[in-house]
């Protein structure tokens, strides 16, 4: 008899529990592969590491780090690393599992992985952040590599962090291995178009979904939660298509302007000041009122677990585009479906980042690099083709886009598991 995972607390609000509930919903659509579904419920490998560093004042500090490889049946692990004070093993497990599904949904030759360190990076100096990154990389170095597991940026990590990771891994193995991470600076083997790739993917899937709904983007009202690389890039692209960004929320506050916020001013200020809270050409909202904003499109692009069943009852959008990973609970999914709100799920909507990460990985191996126009064209085609197959599956079985995405992806994952067999 299969035993449950003993190191995970199964609570309804736990990201891992959310993922398991999503797997349960796809079981009726897996056909002859359904007997392998337990594979989806168990990470292949979960590494917990101590990350000790010397602080600038000479004292020793310890941080807890994680790297989880959920499934490697389709290829090496792929997934970001986040630095956040609330990172937990269960969260990283769920994020790694969603990466497995996401990579299979867009048919990339990757499995799913994810990493994190429980730390508030804003409290570290740049030198302390470098020491933390290098020590964490050394601790997880025994399971990562260009053909084993390829980290990337995520919450509170960026191209500089990836450069430190690449350099540390390279020093430890004795030669430069640019392909060990993606999201690096361009002059160190990074790819053009990578920084805004996730936001571009949100826009591309949103554009296609709006077309199917008969929603004209010219004049459409958009609300964005989270205004980092994903949310701000998506906002700029929707504005370029004629939409109005009527509300934005991040960790510094919530703002609104029914006539549209000026992205040419808001984006630079948010990047310069680390948030939107001090923007003046708007009205301030309390954070909970953000969910009552009258809009056509809602983009949750912050952290997981933001759209609860209670908030789902209040959302006034016709279309929800999940720029974040796991922002909607299963109960909220049911509420939105009953209310006729279309949700484009994270596992396809925000797959633009990992798709361009794949391009970067391929370019590193060949030492031949593409132009940004080529990158964007390839990204658009992959995202549109993937969404079309998912939508056909949803129409065929009369299921939500989330369940359809899981159906398409899990069939590919379990087929790989079946054909590879078990060893020994």
Can you tell me about this structure?
- The protein has 424 residues and is α/β, with parallel strands linked by helices.
- Among the domains are: 43-175, Rossmann fold (3-Layer(aba) Sandwich); 197-349, NAD(P)-binding Rossmann-like Domain (Rossmann fold, 3-Layer(aba) Sandwich), CATH 3.40.50.
- 42% of the residues lie in helices and 17% in strands.
- The chain has helices spanning 15-26, 89-105, 126-140, 159-173, 197-213, 229-240, 263-273, 309-314, 330-338, 346-349, 352-366, 372-397, 401-420, and strands spanning 45-54, 60-71, 77-84, 112-118, 149-153, 221-225, 244-250, 253-256, 283-285, 297-300, 319-321, 342-344.
- The strands form 2 sheets. A 7-stranded mixed sheet has the order 9-8-7-6-10-11-12, sandwiched between helices. Strands 1-2-4-3-5 form a 5-stranded mixed sheet.
- Helix 3 crosses helix 4 (159-173).
- The longest helix is centred in the C-terminal third of the chain and has 26 residues, at 372-397.
Read across the widest sheet, the strand sequence of neighbours is 9-8-7-6-10-11-12
Q: State the oligomer.
A: single chain
Number of helical segments with 4 or more residues = 13
Spans with pLDDT under 50 lasting ≥5 residues? none
Backbone structural class? alpha/beta
What is the ordering of alpha helices and beta strands?
HEEEHEHEHHEHEEHEEHEHEHHHH
Beta content comes to: 15-25%
Mean pLDDT: 94
Give the N-terminus to C-terminus distance in angstroms: 20 Å
- Determine Rg (CA atoms, Å): 21 Å
Q: So, the CATH homologous superfamily of the domain at 197-349?
A: NAD(P)-binding Rossmann-like Domain
What composes the largest sheet?
Answer: 7 strands, mixed
Q: What name does CATH use for the topology of the domain at 197-349?
A: Rossmann fold
Shape: globular
Helix content: 40-55%
